[in-house]
Each structure stands twice: as C-alpha cells, then as structure tokens.
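Ops channel
N.P.: pipeline sanity check, posting one input/output pair.
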C-alpha cells in the first residue's frame, strides 16, 4: 500500500476526493512533454488496472502486466505533433489538503503500447515494466544449476529492469537443469520462480520488479485492538502490553481502556462505502497443496504428484518447468507451510476511489449489515470517478477440487514483444537512482535535541515522524534509513565506515577482503569477465578469463575419497599418497613427456618422445623396452622373459636346431654346422 500523511487520509475520509493528475511523458526520441494535468484530460480520462492474480482464481506465481489508459483532449490539436508510440509515462496523483498544500503520490511508470486518435481524443494504452519481460528466455545465458535468485537477477539484468527484492522468499532454492523449451519467455520463467517462492511478481511504482506475498499475519494478529500479550504471571503485563483493560467490576472507579497504537492500520485498508457488493457465502480456507513434477514421461518414468495437507480446498501446481524429477515432495512441503490454513473471503465490489490501494494489499471489507470480512485485494481498477472496482478473486469452495484445478497458477496477458536494449547492471542502477532523484518528492525535517544539547536529525517522507514510512536518521555514530517507519534500519553507515546496503553497484571497489556467497564475472555487455591475481610486487601470477585459467605457483587438488592428491608446481605434476609422500611425477624432459615412479628400490621411468619412441627403463637405466615409430621393437636386458614362454631346443632332421629361452629365440645351429 502507498503511504500517505494523516491529513491526506482525513481528507479522503471527508469524501473530498478531487484528485489532481500529473503526467510526465518522455517520447522515444528523448523529447519531454511538459507536465500534463487534469485540464489536458478528457472527462475521467485516466484508468489504472492493477492485478496480482488471474481473474476469478486465487493464483500463485502470477506475473501480470498492469495497464494504464490515458485519454487526452486533443480538440485543439495540442498533442497532434507527438509520436507517442513507445513513450514512457510517469503518473503522479495529488490531493489538495486543508492546509493548502498539495500532497502527491506516485502511481507508476508505463510504456505506451497502442496510441490511437479518433479526431477528438488521443487514447494511450500503456503497459507497466512487466511488459519488458516478454522476450525470449533463450538469450539469457544463466548457467545451470542455478538458484532462483540467480535466475531472476539475470533476467532483470538482461531485460533492463531493476530488482527491488533480491532476497525474496526461497531465493536460494537450486534448480538443477535449464528448461528445454525454446519458446519460453522471460516472464514465464519469472512466473516459475515466483511460484516456487510462494509469491507473485509485480512492478512497483518506480518500475522495479518485486516478488512478494500477501502479509496474512496482519489478519492473524489483528483484532482491532492492539493489546499485546496478556501475561498470567505476577506482576502482569511484564511483556510490555499496550492495552490495559483495568478493573471493570462496577465502573465506579472510572477505569478506561487504552486501545494501543493501532500500528497495523498502516498495513491494511478498511472498505465500507460500497456499491454493488458481491461476496461468497463461505470463507476460502486452503487445506492442501498438490505439486506435480514436470518432465518428459517415459514408459518407466512417470510424473509424480505429491499432496501436502488434506483434501478440501487444494491448490494444484503443475506445468512449472522448474519442478523437476524428484522435486515434488520438497516443493509441496515448502508451499504447504506457506499456504495451508490461509483464510479469506472472495468478493467483488465498487468502493470509493482510493489511490493508496494496490493489488496485493490486505483489506477488511464491511457490508451494510456491518459484517466484516478478511480479503486480499487481488485485482482493482482505479479511475478518476467516484468509485473504483476492487476484488478478492478465488474459485468458490464448491468449484475447487484437487483434481479440477490442474493448470499452473499463473496469468500471462498478451503484450507486444519488444526487445529492450541491453544495458549494464551499473548503468541500470544509475538509471534507477536518477529516476528516484529526479521524480521523487522532497522530505520533511525533524530535529530532536538531547539533554546534552546535541541533536539527532531525521528526514522523512511525511509531515510527521509518526506517519512516515521512509525515515533517514543521523546521529554522531551512524546515518541510516528505514522503510518501515523506524522499526528496522535496513541500510546505512556508521562512524567507523561500516556500511549496510542492499545491492552495491560500482565501477570499481578497492578493499582488503570480500566475503561473498556468489561471485559472477562478465556476461551481457561485459561479455568477457576477468579475474587477475598479483603478487606483492604487482606482478600478475594468475588470470581467469574467457580463454581459461593461467597461473604460476603451486596448485593442489585432493581426493576426498582416499586422501591422495595431485600437485602442479614449476612445470611438474606430482602425485602424493594419503600419507603426503610424493609417489610419482609427470614432466617434460629432453624433448618428451616423462612419467616417473618415485617409490621403491628401483623405480621405473616411462618416456614418450617427440619422435614417436616409447621407452621404459628402471631406476638404474638397465633393461629397456623401446618401441619405434612403427618401425622397430627393441628389448634389452640381462634376463628377458615372457610370461608363459618355453625354454628348450627345437631340433630338425638335418641336424639344425633353434634355442629358446622363456619363449624368446636366443640362438641355434644351421645344417652346415654354423651357430648363431
């Protein structure tokens, strides 16, 4: 939900909702049109469609393209000269407060997809940045196995969209194999990842991708009284409860009830001024999750389906190419832990237009009979009229079954597939920061004076600290930022120079050490990543680049099975046994490759020479077996034996004979009496 000041909320409570529209349009050629306001729009000439699930279904893993429709008044040809195709439209909405100030909120950034002109008006049909993901996934060169986080980050980098939630739920889940489908789009792959995180993917009002889920814990803990934990011990309320019920025996003491801070009101909406309210007669309570593996079946290997939970209202997950063979049980268990027990009431209605509501928010919805329901806002349509359409979509319990809901729960909306120019991650970060600086609003300042006269400075996005969500705080020891109203400080730097950041983008980093989980070099615009290692004198002693690995020095690779190892050093390859003793070596000596056994009393040497000869000798150089390049075989030794060979004399009738020793001919006599 979009955070606004209390004065903004009070203004809307008075039903004074004369919203002011501000459109900043940048054409494809870089031309910027001066801000377009209400006077330039046709009556009710702005509509925003926002969704996180498929229509009439409660879905997991949706990646829906949201839509902006702008109708410009062009009776006097004010906009006729412009080519709006591919233009970027940034939408802000303002409300004039009783103080006279105009408070603005950002409603999104969109790309014009289909401009049209009817002679009177120009209609701009625009899509949010989710449309940038409608490009072929095959061009994203992520090496597999890969985690969901790596897959999503690479897609965002390729498509030129900043990732606002790099550590989304289950982002460390590893996917073994890359999907083989060549027709996959990046948005479909994002849907796979969002589904396995038990979330939905959407682009925020700055065009950044985020993967998140409904904060159902708000419903679980909120009973409209922020009372804390009522301890049974003595003294009671030691845990710091905010609600004290007092003693209501006879009410004579005048004891009152403190309702607490109601902090949760900043995390849900209350809809009660309704028009055309339709609500399901029963709550949806998810009882189970059914997960089916996705791979090419054979006669021997069939797809496995695992049910986590019980029959009843079952969400079935299938068709997800990231759910590979053997993964169903693990994924079903994870999704079940997130989804089983989830309770909400499907409904659709029209409510008073409220620009702070976004798809993915939580709401209490109260009908005219004062019945109140827990609802997730899954789809809405905001316009400048009095009412906006809001729905909490799901199949009714009677229509849902474990067998009847078998398609993958994702929604793919058709959009023009325009490939976006690839930019580096650094350029992307600079672009995002530029947009934040140039298109954001100012801050308010609060100074807190301490007893010693020192001051703590706060800068915040709303008039008071209490109603602000983004707060910058500066003390003598640290400077930090919070995006949840000061509950946690998610980024900053202390006086010692220690910094906490989400994603660091830089051209260069000088440091003494880096501790990281994943180091990725190169890819996309920086096609050939490079890592070099230098010694103390600045000499390069190692390099890892697109050509491979080259280095000088000593390398050792150990065999984890038996403790042996191989060492590469000074042009030699040494082999060690498990005791750490060198038992052999491979080297290049005298024009050939030599293999030496370095244990035993008389170790052998095998030489493979460049001229094609192979020679085997013992450690003393005695005895040899030489094989020439297809021309000769030479055996020399004091004793030569061939296993199984015979020793003796073969005599012939003419008096000649042949002498054999161990199967080898060693001499003889001819018929004339000469010997050899």
């Amino acid at each position: 939900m979009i955070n606004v000041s209390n004065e903004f909320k009070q203004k809307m409570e008075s039903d004074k909702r004369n919203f002011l529209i501000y459109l900043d349009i940048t054409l494809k050629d870089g031309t910027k049109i001066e801000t377009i306001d209400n006077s330039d729009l046709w009556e009710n000439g702005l509509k925003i469609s926002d969704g996180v699930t498929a229509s009439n279904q409660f879905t997991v893993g949706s990646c829906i393209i949201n839509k902006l429709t702008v109708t410009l008044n062009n009776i006097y040809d004010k906009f006729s000269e412009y080519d709006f195709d591919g233009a970027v439209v940034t939408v802000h909405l303002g409300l004039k407060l009783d103080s006279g100030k105009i408070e603005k909120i950002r409603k999104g950034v969109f790309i014009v997809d289909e401009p049209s002109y009817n002679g009177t008006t120009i209609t701009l049909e625009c899509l949010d940045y989710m449309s940038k993901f409608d490009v072929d996934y095959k061009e994203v060169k992520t090496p597999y196995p890969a985690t969901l986080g790596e897959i999503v980050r690479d897609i965002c980098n390729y498509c030129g969209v900043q990732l606002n939630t790099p550590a989304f739920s289950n982002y460390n889940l590893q996917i073994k194999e890359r999907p083989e489908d060549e027709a996959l789009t990046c948005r479909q792959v994002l849907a796979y990842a969002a589904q396995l995180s038990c979330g939905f993917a959407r682009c925020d009002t700055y065009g950044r991708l985020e993967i998140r889920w409904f904060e159902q814990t708000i419903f679980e803990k909120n009973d409209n009284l922020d009372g804390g934990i009522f301890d049974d011990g003595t003294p009671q309320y030691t845990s710091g409860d905010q609600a004290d019920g007092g003693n209501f025996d006879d009410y004579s003491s005048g004891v009152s009830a403190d309702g607490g801070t109601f902090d949760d009101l900043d995390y849900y909406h209350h809809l009660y001024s309704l028009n055309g309210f339709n609500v399901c007669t029963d709550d949806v309570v998810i009882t189970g999750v059914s997960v089916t593996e996705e791979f090419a079946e054979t006669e021997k290997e069939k797809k496995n389906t695992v049910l986590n939970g019980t029959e009843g209202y079952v969400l079935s997950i299938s068709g997800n190419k990231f759910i590979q063979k053997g993964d169903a049980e693990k994924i079903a268990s994870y999704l079940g832990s997130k989804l089983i027990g989830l309770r909400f009431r499907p409904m659709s209605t029209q409510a008073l237009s409220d620009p702070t509501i976004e798809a993915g928010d939580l709401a209490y919805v109260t009908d005219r009979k004062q019945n109140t329901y827990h609802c997730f806002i899954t789809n809405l349509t905001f316009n400048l009229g009095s009412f906006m359409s809001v729905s909490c979509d799901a199949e009714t319990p009677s229509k849902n079954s474990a067998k009847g809901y078998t398609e993958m729960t994702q929604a793919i909306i058709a959009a023009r597939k325009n490939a976006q120019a690839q930019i580096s991650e650094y350029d992307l970060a600079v672009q995002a920061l530029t947009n934040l600086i140039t298109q954001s609003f100012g801050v308010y300042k609060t100074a807190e004076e301490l007893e010693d006269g020192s001051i703590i400075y706060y800068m915040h996005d709303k008039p008071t600290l209490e109603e602000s969500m983004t707060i910058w705080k500066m003390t003598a020891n640290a400077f930090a930022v919070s995006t949840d109203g000061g509950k946690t400080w998610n980024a900053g730097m202390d006086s010692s120079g220690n910094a906490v950041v989400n994603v660091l983008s830089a051209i260069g980093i000088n440091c003494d050490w880096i501790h990281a989980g994943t180091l990725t070099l190169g890819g996309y615009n920086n096609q050939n990543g490079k890592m070099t290692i230098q010694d103390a004198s600045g000499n390069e002693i190692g390099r890892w680049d697109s050509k491979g690995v080259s280095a000088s020095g000593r390398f050792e690779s150990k065999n984890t099975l038996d403790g042996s190892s191989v060492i590469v050093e000074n042009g030699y390859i040494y082999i060690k046994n498990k005791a750490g003793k060198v038992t052999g070596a491979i080297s290049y000596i005298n024009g050939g490759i030599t293999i030496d056994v370095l244990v035993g009393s008389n170790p052998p040497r095998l030489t493979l020479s460049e001229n094609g000869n192979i020679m085997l000798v013992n450690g003393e150089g005695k005895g040899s077996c030489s094989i020439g390049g297809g021309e000769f075989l030479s055996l020399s030794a004091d004793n030569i034996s061939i296993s199984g060979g015979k020793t003796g004399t073969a005599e012939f009738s003419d008096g000649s004979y042949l002498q054999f020793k161990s199967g080898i001919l060693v001499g003889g006599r001819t018929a004339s009496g000469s010997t050899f």
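N.P.: looks fine end to end. The chain has six helices and 44 strands.
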